Amino acid sequence: MYDPVQGRMLSPDNYVSTPFGTQGYNRYSYANNNPLSYVDPDGNFPIIAAAIIGGFIKGMQYDMSGKGSFLGGFWRGALLGAGGGFASTLAPIGILPGMAYGAGSGALLGGIGAGLDGDNVWKGAMKAGIAGGIMGGIMGGFEANQLDANIWTGQRPLEYTPVSLAGLPTGGTPAPYSDEYLHKLYNKNYSGTKGMGWMSMKYAPKGTEFLPDGTWMYNKENVLAITKGRVWKHGGISKVYFSRAAFASSERLAHTMAHELGHITHNYLGLHSLAAEVQNHPEAGLRTEGHRAIEKMTNGLNIINGWKVAQTLDYKNYYLADDQLYSPLLFLIKKIIFPQ
Fold first, then answer.
1. Could you state, in order of their start, the residue ranges of all structural domains in the chain?
2. 126 backbone dihedrals φ, ψ, rounded to 5°
3. pLDDT tens string 245-261
């Protein structure tokens, strides 16, 4: 990924490094910021490690209790450990969602484990379900608090592209107003973006008001598109709603899409709290640290595509963008390919 503003390259980790903590969702921190102790070249450590640890513990239990051989216990423990490691990557934020998910996944794995050990399946499922529900609620509440979400439900404030943002492209070719064109534009340019769950122009989130110019009114602002973070995968999945006004031109739609994918990327990496911080430079379009980094990115997008804008932001503000928020957005700066 190339940064046309600062002329440098970055290579993110495409896999979750540690599903048991939010730091593992920052693809730009190597080995959980502890490279002296850990080496993780492919990012697959958690599930593999969970399988090995689970297998070793179960193998020792089998061997010491005389229940069976070490290998007999190892493969059972490895299977359950891998299943638990995978389940942890899908866990939601919020106490209530965490309790429900933890109880369900815990009961399933507990029942399977009891069956593999020749024990009572229902008792194993009940015990593991209770423990999973308690731990899921605790971890869900903790992560919700870390992401400034509602501690009980895991819901977060909506994020959006204000019409007042400087740097929006002007003119250009009108974009077909359809989900088909929206998805084609995404697939040709940003397909596979981590954290993207769903996007559409057919719906508007609750709390918005349709305006005659095709925009929505939200939070006392005219907006072009809105991102809503979901609770699943540790709060790393989002969906995006696009207004009719975002389709004024293909260039504006691509710009708006990149802006919202910036919010999605911050959510996916667990950087929502830092992105939501209010800065000391309340110029239009630079209301938070997240928007400052996103505007720096979209400025690079405008430059590389040669798009004309009605108003540009003062470049002196860009160097203030937090690099932890800006660097993960470099993949969004590219020559856009428009669908035919």
1. 22-146, 159-332
2. -65, -45
3. 999 999 999 999 999 99
